[in-house]
Amino acid sequence: MEEASGSVNCPHKIEDVLDILNKEISGSKNKRILPSVVLLLVDIDNLERVNRWYGRNTGNDVLSATAKILHRMLRPDDLLARFGGDEFLLLLRGVALKEAKEKASKIIESLKNHDFASDRLKISASIGIAHYFSFAFSSDELLGCAVEALALAQKEGGTFKVFMEEEEWNED
Questions:
Q1: Domains of the chain in sequence order
Q2: pTM of model > 0.70
Q3: Which residues of 89-103 are buried (b: 16+ CB within 10 A; e: fewer)?
Q4: Cα dihedral value 82, 18, 131, 162, nearest 10
């Protein structure tokens, strides 16, 4: 397990996840098919407030517990990495967008219902979802789409947003 910061353990480094994503994209292009990959960028809402009000140790406990919750929700082909600060990146492979949305809902619900550090402390999370589509040509571009979707989700907090739903980019 890779230790990203403090006591927060994630099984992969962000660079490794992006490298695997690039390989998935390249392999699919060679086969002339769209890869069935989805990125979920998970952000713990207002972690800086937890650090201020409860202390950094509690904030670290929240990060560690979140990593464990996310890790338990992974399927064998999924990858999890610490993205930075209070964010985690999940690469879901072999899934459709519908399944990714269901996973995002489960993540949000699991984190909302978990007792962190004490019965008084509850958190929420925002999630940006990016699925592969014809104009994202690299892992960096797909990650950029997830970052944009996350920014939209953070405006509401405790929800997820998808970067360009399929109906938004179909030319029909």
A1: 2-163 (3.30.70.270)
A2: yes
A3: bbbbbebebeebbeb
A4: 30
